[in-house]
Amino acid sequence: METHSSPLQLRAWRGFLTAHARLVAQLEDELAADADLALTWYEVLLLLRESAEGGLRMHELADSRLLSRSAATRLIDRMEAAGLVHRRAAEVDRRGTYVELSDEGLAALRRAAPVHLRGIGEHFTKHLDDEESAVVERVTMRIVAALESGNGGV
Asked: Residue 115's closest CA among 57, 52, 32, 58?
């Protein structure tokens, strides 16, 4: 099915890509400089902290970070070597592996969170009022839902 986008829609797309790329680069630079932590590592630590079970299976982590299983394994290898996370075998299914936040990982997350939240405020949310924020949330969640359900892809 071929879809045609209007010039306005294409400008919105290009603006979204540019804003995303510049925002991520800025947040990465700030986290590295002020908290000595990579943005990807911060996001993994945050996902682990927010998980209901105290950790995530490797495949869940890969899926949530949009990484291949091998890329997720390499990422967790590096984070584990840095002492930020540890692995444990799943209690029910010994074939599965959970990744959990270490005490050092929790401390790193706590040091980095104010830096990251300040960056989000300075570089993103201060440019949106509540109405615009609601529109951005609605639109992005609609796109995510369509892609996750298979209705937004090819």
From this structure: 32
